[in-house]
Amino acid sequence: MRNIVLLISGGGSNMAAIVAAAQREDWPGTLGACIAGVISNRADAGGLELAREAGLPTAILDHRSYARREDFDSALAQQIAQWDRGGSVPALVLLAGFMRIVSPAFVALHQGRLLNIHPSLLPAFPGLHTHQRAIDAGCRFAGATVHEVTAELDHGPIWGQAVVPVLPGDSAERLAARVLTQEHLLYPRVVKAFLRQSGG
User: Fold this and answer.
1) pTM, full prediction
2) Known catalytic residue: 110?
3) 2-197 has which fold?
4) Which residue in the list 110, 118, 131, 147 is annotated as catalytic?
5) In 3D, which of 43, 52, 44 has the Cα closest to residue 15?
6) 3-class SS of residue 20
């Protein structure tokens, strides 16, 4: 059984979509994979309660308790390793609204097994405030991207994208809401494809 660990910082809606898909589609039986746990860097992250309601182990690692990013990432890696049932690194670590930039050492440890969802059609608009930037640039379309995490922010091989129109008079909030509904469909679909390609 291959383990999946999710990292969150907020409400956890993408995490919840992945958990729901795993339960609905019996990922342990169909893909040989299970969700081992959910980690948040914020104690007040709403996604933690959603994870607990789903019966998943949770952990809180406050990044403010660590002097350096590398120290936090080392503790993060240790927590991930504690949930491994097979004695090796997990099959997949998913950044699902995890609002921390991980260090090159953390990326190297999970190279090729670390995915992120980003609310733009990469390579356009890496970083923050993606929806307003798309509107300001006059884009007719926006969307979301699931990609492998590399040492370079919001780069790495793209595994899937979802496209939504930018409507006349759109606000960043309205556009974000439309993109988010597609994120909830895209991320589970990409995770399944990744697991199948990697031997599921």
Assistant:
1) 0.95
2) no
3) Rossmann fold (3.40.50)
4) 118
5) 52
6) helix
